[in-house]
Write a structure and sequence with these properties.
Layout: E1 2-3, E2 6-18, E3 24-36, E4 38-43, E5 51-57, H1 68-77, E6 85-91, H2 101-116, H3 123-131, H4 139-142, E7 146-149, E8 154-157, E9 166-170, H5 178-183, H6 194-198, H7 205-208, H8 214-220, H9 222-233, E10 238-241, E11 248-252, E12 266-270
Parallel strand pairs: 5-6
Antiparallel strand pairs: 1-4, 2-3, 3-7, 4-6, 7-8, 9-11, 9-12, 10-11
Helix pairs in contact: 1-2, 2-3, 8-9
Length: about 270
């Protein structure tokens, strides 16, 4: 079976406090977008290995044992019997971009295995598996707009439809380190709830919907800030860095023409 794990963007992001376990509490809105990797799973009937990962597209660093796909396979093997697998991942989504590409791959892999081998995991059980792999991983099990709180892994469903808009996502060829990004942010309680802001007209988002990571990432990488401003200069009604960066997206009422960004990986399309 084959599937196409998609990216997500963050509509606003507040880092509200440091937790005793070393993580941070946040509030953000995850929204799926249609920039995709490709993932295929085939039963490896003659393989001597249980898990065979075949990579193409953008380079993926690290050993197979560190890959979230392999970790998901191991977690599922604790309660279900899986055959040996050939797993083919064609990587399109850039890493270190704040788009959740690795988390999406893992969550779609869990869903795919559940369907392909009739594992009978409930949605809640699949989300519990995904939460063990990363804070935003469980989001991609449902893959629908949510308000995410605590570590970014507790979700409240949102009635938020942006399908009438176009989106442009630009990756300025900078790998943003999430751990470093958190170390540079001073947690604080926002003056207004993100949920309240997101329910306002989109025309107000530019001045009120913020990402707490932008200040430090913009200081480290001025090109990221310039990319955001360039999106506004090209007619975006809202633009922001996604997650802890470094990808920047803009929302548009009409399909944008962005010729000046040709030197960077760029994806444009309709919102989901």
């Amino acid at each position: 079976m084959i599937c196409f794990p998609n990216a997500k963007i963050n509509l606003g992001l507040h880092v509200t406090e440091k937790r005793e376990d070393g993580f941070h509490n946040i509030e953000t809105v995850f929204y799926p977008v249609g920039w995709n990797d490709a993932l295929e799973v085939i039963e490896a009937k003659e393989s001597k290995q249980d898990f065979n990962l075949h990579l193409s597209g953008l380079p993926v660093s690290g050993n197979v044992s560190d890959n979230l796909l392999y970790k998901a396979y191991e977690l599922i093997q604790q309660t279900k019997s899986l055959p040996s697998l050939d797993v083919y991942l064609h990587k399109v989504l850039p890493m270190g971009a704040g788009l959740g590409g690795g988390s999406a791959d893992a969550a779609f892999f869990i869903n795919l295995l559940n369907e392909q081998f009739d594992l009978k995991f409930t949605e809640t059980e699949r989300m519990d598996i995904a939460r063990q792999l990363g804070s935003d991983c469980a989001f991609f099990i449902k893959n629908k707009p949510v308000l995410a709180t605590q570590k970014g892994d507790v979700f409240t469903d949102l009635e938020l439809d942006l399908s009438h808009l176009y989106i442009a996502i630009i990756y300025p060829n900078i790998h943003s380190n999430t751990r470093e990004a958190y170390s540079l942010v001073k947690p604080q309680q926002p003056s207004r709830s993100l949920l309240e802001i997101i329910q306002q007209p989109i025309s107000t988002w530019k001045n009120e919907l913020t990402n707490d990571f932008e200040k430090s990432i913009f200081s480290l990488y001025p090109i990221v800030e310039k990319t955001k401003q360039d999106l506004y200069d090209n007619g975006a009604i809202y633009a922001s860095m996604s997650g802890s960066g470094s990808a920047v997206f803009g929302l548009f009422e009409q399909e944008p023409i962005l010729k000046q960004f040709n030197s960077f990986p760029l994806w444009c399309g309709k919102m989901m």
